[in-house]
Design a protein that fits this description.
Blueprint (H helix, E strand, L loop, with lengths): L5 E3 L3 H5 L22 E9 L4 E9 L5 H14 L1 H10 L4 E5 L10 E4 L1 E7 L2 E9 L4 H6 L8 E10 L6 E17 L5 E6 L4 E9 L1
Antiparallel strand pairs: 1-10, 2-3, 2-11, 3-4, 4-5, 6-7, 7-8, 8-9, 9-10, 9-11
Helix pairs in contact: 2-3
């Protein structure tokens, strides 16, 4: 598959990444700035197009502030993704993600997250994680269109688990390893991604 193959996402990620926009949504419970946070998740990732799978571990150590969120939104709307990614890299880390197996998740062996946001939608908690994508040396050298897709986005849709001694939440989600974000003329967020399909995250579990 060519690195330049792209698709516009019309899945749940479009609505969820609207959290980055100026749309006001109901925030989930927040953690005080001085309170230590460590939310740990395990997910089974399936790359449908490649027919491969792997285990993804996600740890959130803090959520982005409204000031940080607004800074990114304003930059994306005014200056585009390139300058916004520079700002994203400078923001304090919000956690990390890594694979136990790289199968189906090439380019995602271990990454540091720089944006985390959560909201409540339809009785479920929606968590959006975004970071800059590590470009390979071959990509940089070729200067192809894939270098424009330098953001990775991960969305988890979670619901609480009652009466379980080990689990707090469970759910599913989507991982976009290489994405390009932009606002259209109606100020709606567009998401383009490389490849035929994103990575589907099934059986996400948050442990106590």
């Amino acid at each position: 598959m060519s690195h330049t193959e792209k698709h516009s996402s019309r899945t749940y990620l479009i609505g969820t990444l609207a959290l980055l926009s100026l749309v006001t949504l109901v925030p989930a419970g927040s953690t005080a700035a001085d309170e230590k946070l460590e939310e740990r998740y395990n997910a089974f990732g399936v790359a449908m197009g490649a027919g491969a799978a792997g285990i993804l571990n996600i740890t959130i150590t803090r959520y982005s502030t409204e000031e940080e969120r607004k800074l990114l939104v304003d930059s994306l709307a005014k200056d585009g993704q390139e300058k916004t990614v520079d700002l994203l890299r400078k923001q304090k880390e919000t956690g990390f993600a890594r694979t136990q197996s790289g199968a189906g998740m090439k380019g995602w062996p271990s990454v540091r997250l720089h944006y985390a946001h959560q909201t409540q939608q339809d009785g479920k908690r929606v968590v959006v994680l975004v970071t800059d994508r590590n470009l390979t040396m071959a990509e940089r050298a070729s200067g192809g269109r894939s270098v424009d897709y330098d953001v990775s986005a991960l969305v988890m849709v979670l619901e609480p688990v009652e009466g379980d001694e080990k689990l707090i939440e469970k759910g599913e989600g989507t991982l976009y390893r290489a994405a390009k974000l932009s606002f259209d003329k109606d100020n709606k967020l567009n998401v383009e991604y490389l490849g035929t399909q994103p990575i589907r995250l099934t059986d996400i579990k948050r442990e106590k």
